[in-house]
Amino acid sequence: MAAAADQATRRDVAWASARQFAHAAAEPAPVVRLALARAAGLTLAEDLVAATPLPAFDTAAMDGFAVAGASGPWTLTGSARPGQPWAGERLAAGHAVEISTGALVPPGAWAVLPIELAAPDGDAVAGPELPGGKHIRLTGEDAPAGARLAPAGIPVGPALLGLAASCGYDELPVRRTPAVRAIVTGDELVRHGLPGPGQVRDAFGPLLPSLVAGLGGLLEGLVHVPDRPRSALATAVEAASGADVVVVTGSTSVGVTDGLRRLLAERDARWIVDAVACRPGHPQLLARPQGGPYVIGLPGNPFAALVAAYTLLGPLLAGLSGRPLGILPQAPLLTQVPAPAGRTRIVPVVWDGPGVRALGGDHPAFLNGAALG
Predict the structure, then answer these.
(1) Closest CA to 53 of 134, 139, 157, 173
(2) Which among 21, 161, 182, 281 could disulfide-bond with 308, CB atoms 3.0 to 4.6 Å apart, if both were Cys?
(3) In terms of residue numbers, what domain contains 243?
(4) What does the alpha-carbon distance between residue 320 and residue 25 come to, in Å, rounded to a whole number?
(5) pLDDT tens track for 102-131
């Protein structure tokens, strides 16, 4: 009874709930360890932890002189360069070492006297009195050993790669990019040139590769199949079974040419979302046949399909990658947008000063507003 009640909540669900259902249904991909360069763009699978204190030693923050004692003059006794520490054991009071930014500060140093404030005179250097620790980056000042520097679930970008390298990592634990295969259905679709009477140009196929990539997946294949015979869709779905997600555009409603729901029923699929209470994009679905990949059904109209992709495909790919469900920004709407009762209205907007303004051009088959938003 509880399972039946839960299933009932998945039919014509609220738009925000549909996103949550899609994300929660995802089983994250296995963790793999990749060299830093190969991990770029993937999702961090485990917390990044400082293996040593950062910085790992007291470091000069300025070019100048490491001085022992608050006031000089100080007697010069060698130098310290990055990668070439001073050869002595401990800097005695009244002595100084010429030092470069990033070099190891000798034990016994009080502060670093910047070269701009220094007055060298033979084997001595003078300068103003300095507070203890001035211009020295202390061991562990940025992070102690064991500190969590980055949480699991964030994208591996350039700064994270640099941070990992500075911590001594050569590899990172990441989750691979989910593989997506797409099936575009419709007898009326043409893929080149101007459509003739009763035909429409396929607008969704060309945008799918960049859309899937932007949502965090990798489109590994795209095929076009006719509405008839019904076996064409079944054959295409079977051929795509090696992917993590199969996306089908069109064939998601209940008309005589819409066969995806029947196909899923025949395969004893577990329904995750069966239609969403939004406009456009209502006849969308997410299910998973026994032992198969996730199947997302998108409406045939291009803008409606785009809305459905952001509703279900984006959250599902985030979950498969181990990323949290993104928090949607909120802003005042500066133009009136009518919404049908009990349904979420999806419209393209653009920032306009303190809020956002609806762009229009948001009919289910029209991508003008989305292209400008």
Answers:
(1) 139
(2) 281
(3) 2-29+176-320
(4) 9
(5) 999 999 999 999 999 999 999 999 999 999
